[in-house]
Amino acid sequence: MKDKSMLMIPGPTPVPESVLRALGTHPIGHRSGEFSQIFARVTQGLKWLHQTKNDVLILASSGTGAMEAGMINFLSPGDRVLVGSNGKFGERWAEVALAYGLDVQEVKSPWGTALNPDDFKAALEADTAKTIKAVVITHSETSTGVLNDLEAINAQVKAHGALIIVDAVTSLGAVSVPVDAWGLDVVGSGSQKGYMMPPGLGFVSVSAQAWEAYKTAKLPKFYLDLGKYRKDAGKNTTPFTPPVNLFFALDAALEMMQAEGLDNIFARHARLTQATRAAIKALNLALYAPDDAASPAITAVAPAGIDAEKIRSIMKKRFDIALAGGQDHLKGQVFRIGHLGFVCDRDILAAIAGLEASLRE
Ligand code: PLP
C-alpha cells in the first residue's frame, strides 16, 4: 500500500484535512459579498498572527513575491539599502535590490552563523547623513537553519530611522514575530510555510512609516503595487482576481491556528526544534547551526563523512519521508529536516527513527 508521503521539508509543509477540504470546493466570485466576508475574516486573522494593527496585504505570489513587493514599494532607484546576508535567502534579497537598481551594502556573516547586530550598529552609526533608507533581514535563514536576532538588529535600525524589511517566510507562525511591539515596518511571508497551506499566497504587513515612504517611492511596480491592495482591502477585496480557493484554505488554516493559540504554536515549534536537535546529537551527527541561533522551522544537519544526498535518498525510498537537501555549496554536505507548520511530535519521532535506520544502510 502506498501511504501518504511525509513532507519534512521547510515548505511546502503538510496541510491539515480541514484545509484540504476547503480547497476542494467550487470557486466564488471575488466581488461577491460572500468573498468579502471571508476576506474580512482572514485579514483579522492575519493581523492576529502578525500581532499587529498594521495592514496585512494578501498577494497571489510566493514568499519571494511578497518580499519583492515589500522592497520595491518603499524605495526609489539608487536608494541605499543594507542587506543582511548569511545564507541563500539573504543573498536573494541583495539580488532583488540590485535588479531594481538599489545601492546595496551587504552585512555578511558566514553561512551557519547568525548575523551580528553590532555589524548593523556600526554600519548604521557610520551613516550620519542618513542615506540608508532600509535594512533587509531574513529572520529564519532556511538554507542554514539559523534564526537571526531580529529584535536586536531591529533596535539598531529603529535608532537610525531607516525602514526594516523582514523576510519572515519561515519564522512567522513558528516563533513570535511581534510586529507592533518591535515596530517592524514591512514583514513578508508565504502560505506554504507556518500557515499550513499549499503554496500560492504571499503576505506583507506594512507600517505607517512604510506607507509614508510609499508616497515618494519611485521604483516601478504594477501587479505588486501595494497601494492597490490597500485600497481594495478597504472594500474587502483584491485588485486582481485572487486564488479564491486559497482564501478558503487560509480561512480554515487561521481558524485552526487561532484554536491552538499563538503561545501553544510557538511552544510546539520550540519543542519540535529541541527534540530534533537532541536526536541529531544523540546520533552523533553535527548540527549546522549553533544552539543559541536555532531556527524554529528547520534543522540543518552536516553528517561529516557521509553523503547527505544518499541519506535523503534512502529516507525517501525506504520510508517515503522527504527531507530537504543542502542549497548551493552545501549540496551533499547537509540535509535539512523541516519541522514547520502542521507538524507534531509523532512526525519528528518517525523522521528520527527513519534517519537512524537510514544511517545503518
Ligand atoms: N525566504 C525564506 C527564508 C525561505 O525559506 C523561502 C523559501 O523557502 C523564501 C524566502 C522564498 O519563498 P518562495 O519560494 O515562496 O518564493
Describe this protein's structure.
Belongs to the class-V pyridoxal-phosphate-dependent aminotransferase family. The protein has 361 residues and is an alpha/beta fold. The chain is 43% helix and 18% strand. It contains 13 helices and 14 strands. It has helices at residues 17-23, 33-50, 63-72, 88-99, 117-126, 150-160, 179-182, 208-216, 226-233, 244-260, 262-282, 308-319, 345-359, and strands at 6-8, 55-60, 80-85, 103-108, 132-138, 140-141, 146-147, 163-167, 186-190, 201-206, 286-287, 298-302, 321-325, 335-338. The strands form three sheets. A seven-stranded mixed beta sheet has the order 2-10-9-8-5-3-4, with helices on both faces. Strands 1-13-14-12-11 form a five-stranded mixed beta sheet. A two-stranded antiparallel ribbon has the order 6-7. Strand 8 (163-167), helix 7 and strand 9 (186-190) form a beta-alpha-beta unit. Helix 1 packs antiparallel against helix 10 and helix 12 crosses helix 13. The longest helix is centred in the C-terminal third of the chain and has 21 residues, at 262-282. The protein is globular. The model has no long low-confidence stretch (mean pLDDT 97). The structure holds pyridoxal-5'-phosphate. Pyridoxal-5'-phosphate binds at residues 10-11, 62-64, 89, 138, 140, 142, 167, 169-170, 190.
